[in-house]
Amino acid sequence: MAVLLTLSVLLATSAAIVSAGCPGSFIESPYGGNCYEVHRSKKYYCKDARNICQNDGAWLVSIRDGDSMKWINGLYKEYKRSPCNQYYWIGANDLNKEGHFVWQEDGNEIKYHFWEGGEPNNKDNEDCVRVNSDNFEWNDEDYDRSREYCFVCEKYPTFLSEDSE
After folding, report:
1. Which range is the signal sequence, renumbered to this chain (predicted)?
2. How far is CA 6 from the centre of its chain?
């Protein structure tokens, strides 16, 4: 009986000491539990948006299915502010091999996509992807010139001890 009681106390203590959560202004998703932040105060070129996410230990958002597309798009629309418009950067890109789109997070090939008619077309050497939040459609856009949009960063939850909360 004493062993069972000790084991129960140990398990309860372990569960209370460590928990996962989203830091700062990041919001936890119901799809996969990752954390998301809408960058909404200034528009950036894709290259700069990628760097901002990376400097925060994150990446431009990966959208891997229709449910997460709806949730992320809703998050963007809810939190975007001026000067943001309906367009936002995501982490799909073909920077390494033209026409072969992968996710910034892990380099995996994109399997889910919702391309606008005639896209991707690589007009003017386009290597990044933006979403139109009004209709969910994707378009390849320029990496480091001409187009600036707001964006969504994604990161893994942070494991916090009870003392740091």
Report:
1. 1-20
2. 42
Both structure tokens of 92: 């799909």
Give the type of residue at 65. D
User: Which domains does the chain carry?
Assistant: 21-159 (3.10.100.10)
Q: How far from 96 is each of 102, 104, 107, 156, CA to CA, in Å?
A: 9, 11, 10, 24
- Collapse the DSSP code of 69 into the 3-class scheme (helix H, G, I; strand E, B; otherwise coil) and give the result: helix
Give the pTM.
0.84
Count how many residues are written for the chain: 165
SS3 22: coil
Residues of the chain below pLDDT 50: 1, 3-18, 162-165
Q: Tell me how far apart the alpha carbons of residues 50 and 58 are, in angstroms, rounded to a whole number.
A: 9
